[in-house]
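Bench notes, afternoon.
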Amino acid sequence: MTIPEKVLEAQFIEKLRDLKYSYRADIRTRTALEANFRAKFESLNHVKLTDSEFARLLEQIITSDTFEASKILRSRHTMTRDDDTPLDYTLVNVKDWCKNDFEVINQLRMNTRDSNHRYDVMLLLNGVPVVQIELKKSDVVPQVAMKQIVDYKNDTGNGYTHTLLSFIQLFVVSNGKSTHYFANNLQEHFSFNADERYLPIYQFAAENNKKINDLNKFADSFLAKCTLGEMISRYMVLLETEKRLMMMRPYQIYAVKAIVDSIAQGTGNGYIWHTTGSGKTLTSFKASTLLKDNDQIDKCVFVVDRKDLDRQTREEFNRFQAGSVEENTNTGRLVRRLRSTDKADKVIVTTIQKLGLALSGGNNAEYAGQLEPLKNKRMVFIFDECHRSQFGENHKAIKGYFPNSQLFGFTGTPIFDENAHMVQVKGKEASYQTTKDIFQRQLHAYTINHAIDDKNVLKFHIDYYKPEGSETQSNKNQPNNNEPPPKSAVIAKILQKHDAATAGRKFNAILATASIDDAIQYYTLFQEEQAKRLAADPDFKPLNIAAVFSPPASVSAEAKQIQEDLPQESEDNKINPEGKKQALERIISDYNALYSTNHKLSEFDAYYQDVQKRIKNQQWPNRDYSHAQKIDIVIVVDMLLTGFDSKYLNTLYLDKKLQYHGLIQAMSRTNRILNASKPYGNILDFRGQQKAVDKAIEMFSVGDDKEENRQTWLVEDAPTVIAELRKAVHKVTQFMELHDLAPTAAEVGNLSGDTAKLQFIKFFKEVQRHSTQLEQYTDLTDEQREQIAAIIPPADLQAFRGAYLETAQALKVKQDKPDPEAPLEEVDFDLVLFASAIIDYDYIMTLLARSSAQETPEQQRVTRDKLLAMIQADSKFIDEREEIGEYISGLPTGVALTEAELWTGYEQFKAERNTAEVSSLAQVHGLGAAALQDFVDRTLQRLIFDSQALGELLAPLGLGWKARKRKEEELMGDLVLVLRRRAEGRDIAGLEAYE
């Protein structure tokens, strides 16, 4: 049964009253809100303000900067009273958030300079609005309420920037049965953008990770008075470097609570099992900052496995809070910081290697003596992913040296009895203590099963290598290979499958090899094979290949330190170190030539950092950051297989035997969430490791149902998705026929009414989603490809994509300018699903140039028609397809044109078209063409819409205020579309008010 919004609101307020909130039905206006805040402020700070003092207080605390307002809310301040005496004050009780007054108001109407919004429910702490709840009837998805909040935030002159609403910390959206929440933020962090990098949206959960969706249960668990105060004061993180608010996820909160409680109660050690990719660094940071203020603790030492993770963790900590931890350049500096009584040195990030040297003395016995004063201090050590054989010895040293210490470990893949012993390097067995042996008890678990269910990480698609001639074999029937395939065969498969695996090189990949010698051979063979293919086919586009492995220890002290936690590479470098050094020098030299860098082996770390940065730079579109500057595949041995995160790395080529935690850690490099264009992490295994994968899934899953766990971890097989595609296409066909239309793309425009068009959008979006998934499957057989083409031929799919984008564009305009009498249903168009990584302006100009040089006029026309169809079906060009289509259609046939000439011609065409467009607008609206052109140019240059400049533009018309307002609306109705198109996806501040 559908519950009306008003009924849901009334029921919710009653629930809050049960939770001892005071219901203030009298607060419905800005005046009443401010009067209530004044009374609460005066009571809290034991003062009586004059009217002028209160006005000055509001002026001092209200800011359009959401981040600054959040800092003001959490700290003490001083203002000058009318008699020039200082008044120290806080807005809320920051010492004990439970002791604030908690009130609930509803239907607040906020009149500001330019907006008049009404808000469903708000929660006040000491009169300060801190939580806004937007409710929708039960058959409306919460995303509609989210978009409403975003629209309110984007409205010029909104209450969030000019009133006490600037202190809102959290938004909650619910239809009663589905409840989400997210943090307030600055405009640049608070929008749905073209790449679908959405706001971080959360659902609350119980300690066992079970979702709490029901609004009343959410209120019990999250909005109880002291709980809400704790959520805002303790479990929100203010990222200083980005000026952004972050709300911790439920499992992170439970983990921090468990650590803090263990320390307060002195209950010994413990470990947190939170899967890779779940944000363990943020959890660690919050735990350490809370401990920083705990006077019972002398030091909190966060320990990582090796130098690059030390740097990454330090950078993350300092991202959360600038300057929160310093660098320990060597063991001596670590010892000095451990001895320091400065509060800035209370939290230390270091490597397990430096800590071991500091405790043992190593070659410098003075270290151990210097730490004598700390022996009886209360120390807390937090370890990140300690799965190293030397950890057992360090654990003993720490407990022996610091008997009053407590140890806590974070792990995404715990060590159990079964994986405590494994072959690590060339037949040598490395033994590990189990996680439970070291840390005694599990404090909280959030496994990959939970993370996949929450859509915090992706599932995996695994393609097990099949030798030539066995392509039709099922993965399930593929036997494990005892011998690795020839490297030439692996390279051939990678070159065959890479574009599919990475969505046309939108993403990039890691190739994990068994040894440094293997990595060197792969690098050389890739160079040779790609050179052959380029010589045979000038149109072949080589992959950009890099390689990274540690140099021999003799190169530098830095190289020696790097190898301390890279057992395979350390062992490999003992054999023919000079040959490996020369090979790495050649690889770095090639890298310098390819990317115009200047790295050298003696400063290997700078090279390694550049490789990581370039992998992450895959996020930028080719038009902003040339593909020539990106990396397609990086060849590794041990490096990058743990601790490295990039949302744009989606593929792992695996020519290396791995098992248990090592296998899962490596696979997890690929499964970071991005958007609908990245449906899963891709694994191409060349070592027949299906049994190892199945065992790892069994070991690191919750629950005993093996098949259910496999279904959680792994995407559906190709036949299942093909069947889903067939169903989706059938729904579109049925829908079109129901409207007495042929099931063709050409007939979509004949659908009658917006409701029918929205229904088409919903149906065809599922077709595209399944198609996108299948396009990235690397294990499709020829028979399966034929099945897909029979279900929806490629030409038909492309035509429907074009019809979809045309329909979506028209509906989006109506959604952005809703009709109050007949509001359009909110639909997420998922435009990112319709953006090809292959087709860009370079591709277009290259194809046109080749066509003009090699084809007859008739062939050229056919090529251009095909190209126009591609452009029509690609969402990247949704605002420009008319423009570029007109340019291509107007090109002469039978004339050879170079790419440079085509680019120059296009830029000239755009300039002339833009000038003509502005001149036409100026004529229609009675304005000077030069003045309007100048206004448009300045707006695009600054990306700020200046309403005052708009007034100056219209001033020569000499209109009265009513006529001028009407003229402004008429002009902006046309001008917004022009500005949006020319901004090419960039945001123009202040333009939302005219949409």
